[in-house]
Specification:
There is one protein chain. By secondary structure, the chain is mainly alpha-helical. It has one domain. It is 78% helix and 5% strand. Strands 1-2 form a two-stranded antiparallel ribbon. Helix 1 crosses helix 2. The longest helix is centred in the C-terminal third of the chain and has 26 residues. The chain is globular.
Length: 85
């Protein structure tokens, strides 16, 4: 049950990061979950472990990390689209 809860929270974090940035994450739900997990890892590395914890995620660093990840992915995807034109 803990793993399922982590998937749900990771997906929500990735979805919120996409909403904050105003960009869609490639891959739909799976992309949101991956962005949430990688964003949580990145946020914990950069900002440490503080704030409320839900589903083994420190919400504030995870959300900030996911926003940074969505920004980087959107830059890379945008440059790939421009390179094909």
């Amino acid at each position: 049950m803990g793993f399922l809860w982590s998937l749900i929270v990771g997906g929500i974090i990735g979805w919120l990061a996409g909403l904050i940035m105003g960009r869609d994450i490639p891959g739909g739900i799976i992309g949101n979950i991956i962005a949430g997990f990688i964003g949580a890892w990145l946020g914990s590395l950069l900002l440490g472990t503080w704030g409320p914890v839900i589903g083994d995620f420190y919400i504030i660093p995870a959300l900030i990390g996911a926003v940074v990840l969505v920004f980087i992915v959107s830059l890379v995807m945008g440059s790939m689209r421009r390179g094909r034109s």
